[in-house]
Design a protein that fits this description.
The protein contains 20 helices and no strands.
């Protein structure tokens, strides 16, 4: 029986990976077969929810919340590395391990909250792509929503040809977003001294900034992709012994550093572009993607506005496809069955269609969805820490003590920020 094109492509990647593991491929050629999972995960870190929170943060507070982007990106590197390692070490994804090791009630509870997080994610991503189509091509919002659904489903269909075409396509979209913000950097002329200073010096100026700080973390460290990354690595290149587990994890770590650094730089550029162009010119009330586009047009010209929307489209299409992939992993892992991809695509479209039909402010909805994600985030993070610290599950890839300590610090920071947000929501004020 002849192999299908998808099987041939996957076999070539596996053969190349085996060559790297046996030192027949060296340098960048050794890393190439392992590039893919982290770039798919990275898409979730530069989705339209990031546009909403970064634009609001930069326009309202200038460069002062850049530190939150850096903090969130460092958290993302640690968490995604642990998730990828879990898949490599166990051949299981995080939801599957939760179902196998946790009581049924707890596993079902985690599944419900994870589905809520996935829906919130898809809401942000779908709205972003829909807005991009509406602003760039003047397509009515409801029609743009349907086009977005078809486009993202088409991207997902690439998986029929194996994991490599989908990885390459999404990786290309990540590079397109990065190139777009490189152009925006040249056009917006940010103050790099301020960028450097505020990237490392924390600042919280009052109640208004708390919501955005939590939103930035919620938009950057995504619950659904914590689950997904372990699913992307669990059977991609199957290790045959402990030494191969270590080496595959080493390549995975390098890929994560590259992909997440790129995502972090894109997020920084989103915020410092808004700080330079909007806050720096007195436009401190730019709180929506539509207003950002309309304000960019006269300030920097049509080219800058078009580049901004092009990156938004690429972000929305790719991240929505990744969100649907994550939803399938979450359902299959937690409760042991999946639904057809087109059904999940239609169901997760419905909240966006309702919001568009009711005329609700899309960008404010994006920010609120990111806060909701941040509130759900501790659940997968704590589960991930629990499993990756257990030697009986992880074997040679069990967490070193300092990694577990750092991960616990990350979980604590997230919980504290969430408690601050809840306190503020119920009328509390901060003495700042």
């Amino acid at each position: 029986m002849s192999s299908s094109p998808s099987e041939i492509a996957e076999n070539k990647t596996v053969i190349a990976a085996r060559s790297a593991l046996t030192n027949q491929r060296k340098g960048i050629r050794a890393l190439i077969p392992f590039i893919g999972p982290a770039f798919i995960a990275a898409v979730a870190y530069i989705d339209p929810g990031n546009y909403a929170t970064n634009i609001q943060s930069g326009s309202a507070f200038g460069y002062k919340l850049l530190w939150a982007v850096v903090l969130a990106n460092l958290m993302a590197m640690l968490i995604q590395n642990m998730s990828a390692k879990l898949g490599i070490a166990t051949g299981r994804n995080l939801p599957e391990l939760c179902r196998e090791h946790f009581p049924k009630w707890l596993s079902l509870t985690l599944w419900v909250f994870s589905e809520i997080a996935a829906m919130s994610t898809d809401l942000a991503e779908f709205l972003g792509a829909t807005l991009g189509l509406n602003l760039l091509f003047h397509i009515p919002m409801l029609i743009a929503t349907l086009i977005t659904g078809v486009a993202t489903y088409s991207i997902l269909m690439l998986e029929r040809f194996g994991f490599r075409p989908l990885e390459r396509f999404i990786g290309a979209l990540v590079i397109l977003i990065g190139a777009s913000y490189l152009v925006e950097t040249f056009l917006s002329h940010p103050n790099f001294g301020q960028v450097a200073y505020h990237s490392v010096v924390p600042w919280i100026g009052g109640n208004g900034s708390i919501l955005l700080v939590v939103g930035v973390i919620g938009a950057t460290v995504m619950p659904h992709v914590v689950y997904l990354h372990s699913g992307l690595t669990q059977n991609r290149i199957v290790p045959r012994n402990d030494d191969e587990k270590r080496r595959i994890h080493g390549f995975s770590t390098k890929e994560i550093l590259i992909a997440m650094t790129l995502a972090g730089l894109i997020n920084l550029s989103m915020m410092y572009m808004a700080a330079s162009v909007f806050h720096g010119t007195g436009h401190t009330e730019v709180a929506t993607i539509q207003t950002a586009y309309k304000t960019l047009f006269p300030l920097l010209g049509p080219a800058a506005a078009a580049v901004f929307l092009t990156s938004l489209l690429a972000s929305g299409f790719s991240s929505s496809a990744v969100g649907t992939m994550a939803g399938q992993v979450i359902m299959q892992g937690f409760i042991g069955f999946t639904i057809p991809l087109w059904v999940r695509r239609v169901v997760t479209m419905l909240p966006t269609v309702i919001i568009v039909a009711l005329g609700i402010n899309p960008t404010q909805t994006l920010v609120i969805s990111q806060v909701l994600l941040s509130l759900v985030l501790p659940m997968p993070v704590i589960s991930l820490i629990y499993f990756t610290r257990r030697k009986d599950i992880m074997g040679v890839l069990v967490n070193k003590r300092w990694i577990t300590v750092m991960a616990l610090v990350v979980a604590t920071v997230i919980l504290l920020l969430n408690l601050l947000l809840i306190y503020q929501t119920f009328g509390g004020s901060l003495p700042l």
